[in-house]
Design goal:
Length: 274
Amino acid sequence: MNPSGSVKDRAVRAMLLDGIARGLLTREKTIIDATSGNSGIAYAMFGASLGYRVKLFMPSNSSPERKRIITSYGAEIVPTDPLEGADGAFLAVRDAVARDARQYYYADQYNNPANPEAHYSGTGGEIWKQSAGSVTHFISGMGTSGTFMGVSRRLKTENPAIRTVAVQPASPLHGIEGTKHMASALKPGILDESIEDGVIAVTTEEAYAMTRRLAREEGLFVGISSGANVAAALRLAETLDRNAVLVTILCDNGSRYMSDSFWENTVSGDGDKI
């Protein structure tokens, strides 16, 4: 149900419809935001289908596949410093909007309450319904934190006993696209860490290995953040009762990471395959 190929379709749809409903997004304005890729693809898709111009600030080292998809929809990319990552793109777009706010609809996915609301009313409700109310644990990584916050709030509304666990990269310097190491990053305004019942740190190598495994053993061709989520979910599952029902999110498909070298097995210094 995510036509551009990632869970970000839900949040972007909600933010754009909210902007239209409140008169903030008009035909004269350009949709603008920072992205590491998936939200940008969703903005570009919806912009094309609804007839709006789209301008996206994006780290220049984002995968060529994501850039190509975005420009294929007709959106404009403004490259930002790769060393500053998603935070650098966020700061750059904020400066651009400050210089001329009148020409833009700044969706601001890191601070827009419509982002988690899309997952509260949508994704979280679907998980509750499709698990027939049996879910006991929810675990997911965080970029904007919209998916984690919205789903967690909805599930805890349905059953306060449900535990929600965040997945984060183990290091500030990591290769898990779309996720933040919150201790070293600009924290999204929509993030409320009090809703977390725990945090599991995943290394880039664990995420890569699980992403390959999901493709080769399960037939699930997904992206790196999905691999991180499953790696953390399996680690959490080892600590739980056998009757627990654990849910995670496979955020996007693997086609937008095809140029990444991690798809090929590599060998570490001690001879182990990673």
